[in-house]
Amino acid sequence: MTVFSPFVRYSFRYLFLAPSGKKLLLLALVGLFLSSFSLLVLQATMGGLQHNLKKRSKNAVGHGEFVLFDQSDSFSQKIANALSQEGLLPLREYEIELLVRRKAYLSPLIVHGVEDSPKPPSFLEGLSAGGILMGADAAHKLKARPGDGLQFISPIHLDPVLGGIPRSVSDRIARLAVTEVPELDLFHAWVRDSKIHNLIQEVRYNKIRHYLGPSTKARKLAQKYPKKLLYFSWEEIHQSLVWALNLENTVMLALFIAMALLVSISISSGLFIFYQKIHREMIGFWIMGAGERQLIKSCRLFIHLLALSTCALAMIFALLFLESMDYWSPLLMPDIFVDQKIPVRVTFPHLLLSFLIPYGVAVLFSHLSLASFKRRHRHHLTHLRSFGQ
Fold first, then answer.
1. Model confidence band, residue 380 (pLDDT cutoffs 50, 70, 90)
2. What pTM, to 2 d.p., does this model score?
3. What is the mean pLDDT of the segment spanning 67-94?
4. In whole angstroms, how far apart are CA 4 and each of 7, 271, 303?
5. Residue 373 pLDDT class (50, 70, 90 cuts)
6. Under 8 Å between Cβ of 94 and 197
7. Cα four-point dihedral sign 68, 70, 71, 73
8. Mean pLDDT, to the nearest integer, of 361-386?
């Protein structure tokens, strides 16, 4: 029978029941608990905020877009049909930058001439009835509201009248769109594709967006027509945003690793003092027949069980805390923020990192402490002889 189980039971009993000699180690374990707890909570809340940001953007601009070189109606319809068969929910449009005029106000605006679709994105619902769907911030900039008339002017499309007059079309604002994506609400508007076709006097589509993933299916389709179109996924279009979000996650993990290192230094010091306190008991196990290797392995098992139980307990409490926070959903942010309630999103990588980082760093430093203790107390017989002196 090995000495693992009796020695580990004794170590835990001494750690939690002995009256003195382990305060520093207990404080270090509290620090380890807080490291794992706070890392999971922070990752879950930040992950929720980032996920909602990406979701809002993808709901408005799609999971990806095709830029068409062949802008004919037949080719764009062919691509849209292929995307529909893959279940990617495509939407054809002609995107153009125009000048919009309302009375004395004149402003540049990106206008999307969108085809009528049986399953449009939620913010485009009702556009098939006609009129202009304008971003709320763009309308505020023009001091416009639903029912007001607007004139769209295209400086690049000229009528050969009086030496060339920029073409224009007029319509009324049907309703204001709130996509919760600032750059869209401030500079974009949507109309029926027929309105833009009348302006450019051609039936053309220069973009196709798809509002369902994955992007791999769309990319495979794009590879069949390399000279007629290009495909860009949402991540490729928003490279700077993706880079910033990844940097945010990297900095967060780096800070928590540094915090875990500080906690682990306390753990290693506490363990060294703890082993000094139970050194005589270790000699007692040695006298009763336990080999030195068995004692060292038992110490390592004790370290692993201690770190594992602390991190596991922290994860359980963190999940309970996140569940309660998500259930009660307190309003913490002012009205100017899109997410007034802190969103919670826990994924398996979040759980894995929140467990492995504190656990791994703690175990590493604990083994270093055990190695130092082993070097200083290599000969049990010499220490045993000192008891009677």
1. very low
2. 0.76
3. 93
4. 6, 18, 12
5. low
6. yes
7. negative
8. 62
Distance of CA 348 to the CA centre of its chain: 13
Question: C-alpha angle 221/225/228, rounded to 5°?
Answer: 125
Q: Comparing 4-13, 160-169, 296-305, which segment has the lowest mean pLDDT?
A: 4-13
Closest CA to 377 of 294, 279, 289, 309: 279
- Beta strand pairing call for 90-102 and 105-114: antiparallel
The residues, ordered by sequence, that sit 6+ positions from 223 with a Cβ below 8 Å of its Cβ are none
CA 370, CA 272: separation in Å to the nearest integer? 7
Q: Strand locations in 52-148, DSSP E?
A: 64-68, 90-102, 105-114, 132-135
Q: Which position has the token pair 């175990």?
A: 363
- What single-letter amino acid sits at 6? P
Closest CA to 63 of 253, 239, 266, 213: 213
Q: How far apart are CA 132 and CA 174, in angstroms?
A: 5
- What are the structure tokens assigned to 137, written together? 């911030």
Place of tokens 């380890």: 32
| Pair 271, 367: CB distance under 8 Å | no
Residues 6+ apart with CB under 8 A from 114: 91, 92, 93, 120, 124, 127, 190, 191, 192, 193
Structure tokens at 187: 């500079």
Q: Distance between CA 199 and CA 86 in Å, rounded?
A: 33
User: For the segment 109-152, what is each residue's pLDDT rounded down to a tens digit?
Assistant: 999 999 988 888 888 888 888 899 988 888 888 888 898 999 99
Q: What does the pLDDT read at residue 320?
A: 92
User: Rounded to whole angstroms, how far apart are CA atoms 312 and 355?
Assistant: 7
Give the ranges where 208-328 is alpha helix by DSSP (H). 215-222, 234-237, 239-277, 279-287, 292-328
Q: What confidence tier does 3 reach under pLDDT thresholds 50, 70, 90?
A: very low
Structure tokens at 338: 């899109």
Beta carbons within 10 angstroms of residue 147's beta carbon:
10
